[in-house]
Amino acid sequence: MKKRFVSFLVLAAVLLFGLIVSTPASAASYKNTYYTTKGAHLYKDKKGVKVIRTLPSGSKLYLTHKSTKGYYFVTYGKTSGYINVKDLSKSRYATFKDFKGSWFLNKKSKHSQYEISITKNYIYYNYYPNALIGAVKLNEAVIRNNTLILKNVTLRRDGTQVWGKLTQTLKLTESNGKKILVVSKPSNKEISNFHGTALKK
């Protein structure tokens, strides 16, 4: 009887040890990796009032989840504080902030014919200044190594007409202190004029 009781205690101890060891690994598997965008601040409070420091672009942070808005408590190195979730990205290299804006093909002048406008939700292809020729949903695009990749995405017009599929890349570079958007020739015939180098407005 005594031996059985001792065996039971040993077995219970082994099972308990196994649970304790496996718990951190399980918790780690739920962590998501995010990266800081350019100009991301670490704040002292969750209101985003007092800045402790500015974090380098591409700083890696692990979060258990990421809400769509608000401030998240994080630890960077030995410093703890709050970061605005809008300043976090799944991509380490380029972010929506880098690409956001209006980009003119060729030299910027009053004679510019074509414009690429990148907003929060869409990438618009315009005849300068206002005529919309097509649009791509930004959530259908992938940002990788400072390149915005549009592969087999749907090209739309006026929110209703579907123009078919589009394959194109937009690469963000810097030359003489100016941001340059290098636009590849698209596969879609309707916007075949949109290729080359664009300057930010």
Descriptive terms for the model:
alpha+beta; 2 helices; 9-stranded antiparallel beta sheet; 2 domains
Report on the structure:
- This is SH3b domain-containing protein.
- Residues 1-27 form the signal peptide.
- Keywords: Signal.
- The protein is of the alpha+beta class and 201 residues long.
- The protein folds into two domains: 33-90, SH3 type barrels (Roll); 96-195.
- Helix content is 16%, strand content 46%.
- It has two helices and 16 strands.
- It has helices spanning 2-29, 96-99; strands spanning 32-36, 41-43, 51-54, 60-63, 71-76, 79-84, 88-89, 101-105, 114-118, 122-127, 131-137, 142-144, 147-157, 161-175, 178-183, 196-200.
- The chain has a nine-stranded antiparallel sheet with strand order 11-10-9-8-16-15-14-13-12. A three-stranded antiparallel sheet has the order 4-1-7, with no helix packed on it. The protein has a two-stranded antiparallel ribbon with strand order 2-3.
- A hairpin with a 2-residue loop joins strand 5 (71-76) and strand 6 (79-84).
- The longest helix has 28 residues, at 2-29.
- It is elongated, with a radius of gyration of 25 Å.
- The model is unreliable at 14-29 (pLDDT under 50).
